[in-house]
């Protein structure tokens, strides 16, 4: 029987090594390919008819008024496309009810606390990051705690969705949360509010299908 030469064996081993190494080299591409877009959800009835004069990232200060109810929280994240690239030029909007469950909207009787801004809009930075100072959301009749989120590119709304609080007992009874398809979609929209050095924080990454 003819044995392979030393050069042939080296070539064979080199080929095997390259095959074994290939999955490692492909891992980042596979990870990017598996990135899923943030699920969309209904805007709901309480998007402001008229944006407040103060529409910045701090919902706990409405002009000269300071809001001192509920649990203050930071909500932050990064807006990327499905390959993980930050989406420059994106604007993120949030709106939510006050600590008593009321929105700044005529459809809710306009009963919201005037000191709570209720709506905020920020442009992402060069890394796609955004950050809001707001209230840990609270429940109201028929709904689990949630924050409405909209992302715009120029005048175009590219995503409308809702953020939920991980572990809240009302989630399982909420019709919109239950409508999400499986654990993957629910995990994408349901985030923990955790205590940090600067208070409660929630990280909500947003992935856009552009």
Describe it:
It is a single chain. The chain has helices spanning 6-33, 175-179, 182-189; strands at 61-62, 65-66, 72-81, 90-95, 119-123, 129-135, 146-153, 156-165, 190-191, 194-196, 199-203, 206-208. It has three helices and twelve strands. Helix content is 20%, strand content 30%. The radius of gyration is 23 Å and the shape is globular. With 210 residues, it is α/β, with parallel strands linked by helices. Strands 3, 6, 10, 11 and 12 form a five-stranded mixed sheet that branches. It has two domains: 1-34; 35-208, Protocatechuate 3,4-Dioxygenase, subunit A (Sandwich).
Write a concise keyword list for the protein shown above:
single chain, 210 residues, alpha/beta, Protocatechuate 3,4-Dioxygenase, subunit A, 5-stranded mixed beta sheet, globular
Could you state the CATH homologous superfamily of the largest domain?
Answer: Aromatic compound dioxygenase
| CATH architecture annotation of the largest domain | Sandwich
Low-confidence stretches: 4-33
The helix-strand sequence is HEEEEEEEEHHEEEE
Strand content: 25-35%
Number of strands: 12
Please identify the structural class as seen in this structure: alpha/beta
Mean pLDDT: 88
CATH class of the largest domain: Mainly Beta
CATH topology of the largest domain: Protocatechuate 3,4-Dioxygenase, subunit A
């Amino acid at each position: 029987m003819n044995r392979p030469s030393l050069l042939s064996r080296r070539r064979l081993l080199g080929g095997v090594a390259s095959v074994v190494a290939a999955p490692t080299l492909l891992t980042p591409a596979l990870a990017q390919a598996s990135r899923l877009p943030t699920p969309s959800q209904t805007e709901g009835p309480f998007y402001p008819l008229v944006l407040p004069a103060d529409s910045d990232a701090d919902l706990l200060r409405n002009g000269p008024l300071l809001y001192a109810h509920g649990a203050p929280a930071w909500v932050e994240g990064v807006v990327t496309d499905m390959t993980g690239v930050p989406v420059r030029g994106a604007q993120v909007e949030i709106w939510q009810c006050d600590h008593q469950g009321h929105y700044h909207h005529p459809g809710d009787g306009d009963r919201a606390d005037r000191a709570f801004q209720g709506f905020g809009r920020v442009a992402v930075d060069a890394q796609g990051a955004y950050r809001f100072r707001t209230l840990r959301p609270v429940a109201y009749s028929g709904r689990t705690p949630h924050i409405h989120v909209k992302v715009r590119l120029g005048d175009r709304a590219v995503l409308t969705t809702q953020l939920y609080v991980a572990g809240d007992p009302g989630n399982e009874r909420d019709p919109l949360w239950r409508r999400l398809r499986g654990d993957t979609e629910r995990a994408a929209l349901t985030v923990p509010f955790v205590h940090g050095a600067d208070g409660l924080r929630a990280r909500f990454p947003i992935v856009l299908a552009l």
